[in-house]
Amino acid sequence: MKISDQDVLKISELAKIKILPNEVPQIASELEKILEFVEQLNEIDCSGIEPLSTVTVAQAYERQDVVDDNNCLDDIVGNAPEQSSGMFVVPKIVE
Amino acid sequence: MNNLTELTLSEARDLLRAKKISAAELTAAFLKRIEAKACWNAFITVTGDLALAQAKESDTRLARGEIRALEGLPIAYKDLFCTKGVRTTAGSRMLESFIPPYESGVTQRLKDSGAVMLGKTNMDEFAMGSANVNSCFGSVINPWKAKDNPAQDLVPGGSSGGSSAAVVGRLCLGATGSDTGGSVRQPAAYTGVVGIKPTYGRCSRWGMVAFASSLDQAGALAKSVKDSAIMLQVMSGYDPRDSTSANVGVPDFEKSVGQSIKGLKVGLPGGDWIDQCDDSIKTMIGNAAAWLKSAGAEALDVSMPHIKHSLEAYYIIAPAEASTNLSRYDGVRFGFRAPAESIGEIYQNTRREGLGAEVRRRILIGAYVLSAGHIEAYYQRAQKVRALIKQDFSDAFSSTDIILMPTAPSGAFAIGEKQNDPVTMYLNDIFTVPANIAGLPAISIPAGVDSRGLPLGIQLIASSFNEEALFKAGCVIESSSGFVPWREEEATS
Amino acid sequence: MSVAQRNYTPALYKGNWEVVIGMEVHAQVISQSKLFSGASTTFGAEPNSQVSFVDAAFPGMLPVINTFCVDQAIKTGLGLNAEINLWSRFDRKNYFYPDLPSGYQISQFYNPIIGPGWINVRLDEAKVFGLRINHIHLEQDAGKSFHDQHPHKSYIDLNRAGVALMEIVTEPDMRSKEEASAFLRILRTTLRYLGTCDGNMEEGSLRSDVNVSVRRPDETLGTRVEVKNINSSRFVEQAIEFEVSRQIDLIENGKKVIQETRLFNSSSGETKSMRSKEDAQDYRYMPDPDLPPLILSAERVESIRRTLPELPDKKLTWLQEDYGLSYYDAALITSECGNAAYYEECLAVEARKSGNKVSNEKAKMLANWFTGDLFAYLNKAGLDLGASKISPAYLVELVDLVCDDSISGKIAKDVFDIVWSGGESPVAVVERQGMRQITDSAAIEAAISKVIDQNQDKAQEYRNGKDKLFGFFVGQVMKETGGKANPNMVNDILKKKLSVDS
Fold first, then answer.
1. If you write DSSP's letter for every residue of B49-75 in order, what string do you get?
2. Are B343 and C98 an interchain contact pair (Cβ–Cβ within 8 Å)?
3. Which of B299, B418, B432, B480 is the most buried (most CB within 10 A)?
4. Domain ranges in chain C?
5. Domain C441-499: which topology?
6. Does C152 contact A91 at a Cβ distance shorter than 8 Å?
7. Which regions in chain C score pLDDT beneath 50?
8. Would you state the pLDDT for residue C486?
């Protein structure tokens, strides 16, 4: 798949990873190489095959509806880069 | 004892129980060697004081006869297992100063069994890499040197390169690793230690920093098959906090060690896929098959038409899952935050500066293969291929007990090599990813050296929850090869 | 019960525009702990005090599903006549926002737990239509951002992050704002009957996204606009009203409606563009690899089915058909499950007492006392029905006292007041205060004679044709008997006595 500069900027926005304009061609070419590699999958006939998203043998374990993991405010905000009155703080979000 | 660090885990266990040595002196010996071998950069954090305190407690228990499975045995944890109160970085600037307020399921089990934590080992950032050159704490250096170029630093494999280097370099008795596409087995092969990745669901993923959830599984790196069985025994078990954890019994793995393999059916998948390997590897596969046969096993060819495509499927599925698993690193609640004026810039700059190039690349690929217009062609197609690969294994296991393959296509390479092109680097995982794609247990056992005198690994894969077959057959390869790499390494480095 | 056909033709807007409305309602599931963690769901706690490491998406933390939330979704599905999918799965909806800690919301995009269903929506006594539900899925709520604490900063509280929501997605079956708000009301009532969502609008327990389009009748669907996050049925009506006229204006002026997402401003009653379809977020839905598929047994579904309460539409029918209640009364009684329970308890007490089915007349009286007097008292005192000082047994006792002529309807109001303030039973109040009605005809005759004696002139005027004075005599007799004389007897005897010359 050909990766355009526009594609790179779009996924940079989706992934929220800043990419400088002068880095775009290099990244586009790297991604293209990787995609070209994985496109070897197109050789395989997958018709009628159901996608497999997990190999777990587990059936979902369902927890009981009890409150047993609460009130650890200090630990929750303890690693925060910025916090105030027990809340995480970020620059004002403009809607 | 002269050199306590030369003991295997099981030997040290026996000596501690016989009160011939103390946990404190054993721990001190390892801490001393860790300091002496700091140049390998195997550890991100060394927890000396904590280790000595734990050792002291173990000595008290040993004296009282209150002995737990790993009482007083110093081991190391890959730095993606969260350790309560001890910095856990996942090799990333993003978590450079993150102190988890909780203990991972696997390390809690090790702690509860009396293991002494020496520290946290270096790793490729977020477990993404095959050479341990992607750590924000610098590359790990393989204790081995090539005969033809002893001055050159080699990679220890990745992503559990700190753990593999630490085990072969005698900085610990054993170490935990994690294996998403070969991150336990491939570094084990490059350094000449045993690396086991159990069945998906055997070990809890709770508290293990996630890379790709459907592939990630904890594993053990150790000096011998027996040591790896002893460690895995403790690490395994159901954890209701991980919904993918399997509620199945854990057999006595150590018991399998040394058991007969008479009648064991060993499958050999052929094809151009394996023909591309170095000759030394092809020879070694032949040797391994012969050793197993002479121990009573039968070898037969198995057809697995889709497994050669595992790597392609893997490089869609793993980045896709990683791209969403790593969205939580946004500079809001914990970890690194780049200074910025708006929330959008915080995200963009934090993730640019806090994550390394390879991690960013995989997140971008992951976002691409999941994005509108591409998800069917890439992500969903890869999942269909995943189903076919799983079927290949099921078919193979209808006539065989284990599958014999190389662990990696070559021995360790130099730091800086294969770094220009990501795909070349990815090819190191070609033989290890199939077991992750299918969720199967697999082990890498050192079986010889290549033309440069560097260790090579043999890989065995078994059906789900049949780790015992790996330990049995692994022992045969181990004893037949007569190769004790962690002793030979000293001669080369 | 079965799905109703619309039994009326919806009015066209401005004469010739058909309005087409579909909704996505986010209903907060009633549960103690969150959908995937053991943190509490209690509303209004100290910021970030009800957050687990899972909710805050700390490294290595994993979701584990809450079995009760699953049961609640099943119950809701059954209550909305929906198919229950025995195999469902959770997906990640990826986007960045500070109140979404993991950078993805765990939702069900590809395989929701509840499939197609329906609910009958009544607008009034005559108009009803069946609304199809497309599906219902479980998902996590996000946290809350505060923008008013600091001039340049936003503050994030994750207490709500991870609380279970059911997203109820309808087909575009509504044709007016009235239909939309009627749907929202009956949905809220039904969820409250089921006990799966408290429907508390102020706390944001029920939030709606409304899809609105307009077209000429019989044409294909017009371009739809989604108005997001509206938290009351009144605002839903306002938003639809605004959107419909905005869209019609555009089309009538030769412009096109663009497919977009809009936000409703509750103070201006207007909607404004948030993002167009072209900028639509690419959510990159993928199955959540941390959660195995959710597999339900048919037995589990059946055992939940057995716990289903009778739902309002059914009650509404039998209250009218079996007890002759008016649509108005029946609708009022069934509008809240607490009301219905109270009223049904009254019927049960009465049936036990009499050993017979409650008569339509008595049922009507009970309904009047309940929806009239009791509601007025509760309103005035600012109390919920649960805190009523008059139990169903007391209300029945009071109505029985009226029916067997022990007290008049007027005295009954006094008794009601005394029972309300004192807590004594109506019978005890009547006995203690000697309020029992006088039904002794001799005593009533005596009182009447006395009044006529004292008002000979007026009696004469009455006999001369001034009929209006009859009321005066009734009043005087009641006064004489302390209001306790049986009014019918007073009427009868007074008529006789006044007509004959004394």
1. HHHHHHHHHHHHHHHHT---TTTT-EE
2. yes
3. B432
4. 24-210+275-305, 312-432, 441-499
5. Arc Repressor Mutant, subunit A (1.10.10)
6. yes
7. 502
8. 83
Examine the pLDDT at B493 and tell me if it is beyond 60.
Answer: no
Nearest Cβ partner for A30 among B200, B361, B369: B361
Q: Which of C284, C285, C288, C294 is best to mutate for the B interface (most B CBs within 10 A)?
A: C284
Q: Which residues of C touch A68 (CB under 8 A)?
A: 33, 38
Average pLDDT rounded to a whole number, residues B237-265: 96
The structure tokens listed for B297 are: 């096993």
d(CA B457, CA B462): 16
- The average confidence (pLDDT) of chain A is 92
Tell whether A94 lies on the interface with B, counting CB pairs under 8 A.
yes
Decide if A30 and B422 are in contact by the 8 Å CB cutoff: yes
Across the range B370-385, mean pLDDT stands at 96
Domain that holds residue B446: 9-263+441-492
Strands, sheet with C18-28, edge to edge from the N-terminal-most edge strand:
C117-122, C128-140, C164-170, C18-28, C206-215, C225-230, C260-265, C270-276
Measure CB to CB from residue C39 to each of A58, A70, A75 and give the nearest one: A70
Residue C2: CB atoms within 10 A of its CB come to: 8
Reported as half-sphere exposure (CB side, CA atoms, 13 A), residue C445 has a value of: 6
The minimum CA-CA distance between A47 and chain B, rounded to whole Å, is 9
* Cβ atoms within 10 Å, residue C218: 6
Residues B243, C37 contacting (CB under 8 angstroms): no
Would you tell me which residues 254-273 of chain C have a C-beta closer than 8 angstroms to some C-beta of chain A?
263
Contact status of C86 with chain A (Cβ, < 8 Å): no
ipTM associated with this complex: 0.96
Inter-chain residue contact C56 with A76, CB threshold 8 Å: yes
Q: Chains with ≥3 Cβ pairs under 8 A against B?
A: A, C
Q: For chain C, give the mean pLDDT.
A: 93
Distance from CA of A58 to the nearest CA of B (A): 5
- Residues of B belonging to the active site: 78, 159, 183
Chains A, C: CB contacts within 8 A come to 131
| Type of residue at B229 | A
Q: How confident is the model at residue B1 (pLDDT cuts 50, 70, 90)?
A: low
* Residue C407 pLDDT: 87
- For B184-206, the pLDDT digits (tens) are 999 999 999 999 999 999 999 99
Residue B371 lies in a domain: no
Answer for the pair B122, B132: CB distance below 8 angstroms, yes or no: yes
DSSP state of C38: S
Predicted pLDDT at B491: 47
Q: What is the mean pLDDT of residues B461-469?
A: 98
- The nearest alpha carbon in chain A to B350 belongs to A17
For chain B, the domain total comes to 1
Domain boundaries, chain A: 5-43
* CATH number of the domain residue B470 falls in: 3.90.1300.10
Beta strands in C238-323, from DSSP E residues, in sequence order:
260-265, 270-276, 286-287, 294-295
pLDDT value of position B28: 98
Q: Residue B398 domain-assigned?
A: no
What percent of chain A is predicted at pLDDT more than 90? 79
